[in-house]
Structures are given as C-alpha cells and as structure tokens.
Specification:
Blueprint lengths: L3 E11 L4 E6 L12 E4 L2 E10 L4 E5 L5 H6 L4 E5 L13 H4 L3 E3 L5 E9 L6 E6 L2 E6 L7 E3 L4 E3 L12
Parallel strand pairs: 7-12
Antiparallel strand pairs: 1-2, 1-6, 2-5, 3-4, 4-5, 7-8, 8-9, 9-10, 11-12
Length: 167
C-alpha cells in the first residue's frame, strides 16, 4: 500500500474456527463487509464474513481457519488506502492522521506530541507525550479547538494541569 491509513486492529482470537475480534476506528464499520480487502502485517487480509460482537466486530479472514492462525493475528494493525476510505465529515479524522502532531497551547508554545488516539464510548482521547510524562485529553472541541493537519499541530486549551502528568 502506498499511503495506508490504519483503520483498526485485531484484538484477539474468537472461538476455534479462525475468527478474530476486530476493533474498527470508524463510526461506520458496516463498510467492512465480505470481500473487503485490508492491509495487515505482511500482506493483505480478505474479509470472508463479519458480524457484530460486544464492542467489536467478529471477523473471519480468508485462509485463517483455526484458533492457532487467529492467535497469530493478535495485535495486527489493519490498513486501507486513503483513497478507499469513506469521505470524512468536517471535524473527523483518522487516528493515524493525528499521531505525531505537535501539541501547542493557545499561545503557540509547543507542549508535546500526540502519541495515539484512544477510542472510547463517550468520546475519544488524545494520548499526549508532554515534558512531565504521558497525559490523556478528551478529544472534544472545548479542549482541542484546533486541528491543523497541514500545519502539523493541534491546539489544546489552556486549563491548569491539563497538560501535566501526575507523578
């Protein structure tokens, strides 16, 4: 893949027949249906079938026919070409677009870097590396009012303690 975007990961094996639990980083997981091809570690994985599970999708990939094969996929990051992704709405971002962005306060001072996006039920959180350690900031407009992908930064609100890791 020339410009892959991470769209999910394989969390664990599920059952004995090669199924895996997949966490999709999408509000529209219905797009990942039988026949859909995803990039993964070392090659392409073709979805054979998919069904809903508790907070995950239960996916059977072609050629993975037993629990041992499914166990080997644990932790694999699933990717797609950016051109194959659905068009995002204003204010939506893929986690891989945010990883590595500089974190600035409203004055423009660099405060850290985005390590990851942690998906959650109520809202997603940005995991940020700051001078004092790692912090998590809810990814909501009130706390992260600016995301500038072209400029390579996000702005985080100036709230005392928000960008300070506990010791």
């Amino acid at each position: 893949m020339s410009n892959p975007i991470t769209i999910g990961h394989i969390a664990r094996a599920h059952g004995l027949k090669g199924d895996v639990a997949v966490v999709f980083y999408s509000d529209h997981p219905e797009q990942f249906t039988a026949g859909f091809q995803l990039g993964g570690t070392g090659g392409t994985l073709a979805i054979e079938r998919v069904r809903s599970g508790a907070g995950v999708a239960i996916v059977k990939f072609a050629g993975v026919d037993d629990r041992d094969g499914a166990e080997l996929l644990k932790g694999v990051q699933l990717t797609m070409e950016e051109t194959d992704l659905r068009t995002l709405e204003e204010g939506e971002f893929w986690p891989s677009q945010l990883q590595g962005l500089e974190v600035r306060d409203p004055s423009g001072t660099k405060r850290g870097v985005v390590l990851d996006v942690i998906t959650g039920g109520a809202q997603d959180r940005l995991a940020i590396q700051v001078a004092s350690g790692r912090v998590e900031v809810p990814f909501v407009d009130a706390l992260v009012p600016t995301v500038d992908l072209e400029g390579g930064f996000v702005v985080v609100a100036a709230i005392p303690g928000l960008l300070e890791a506990d010791d």
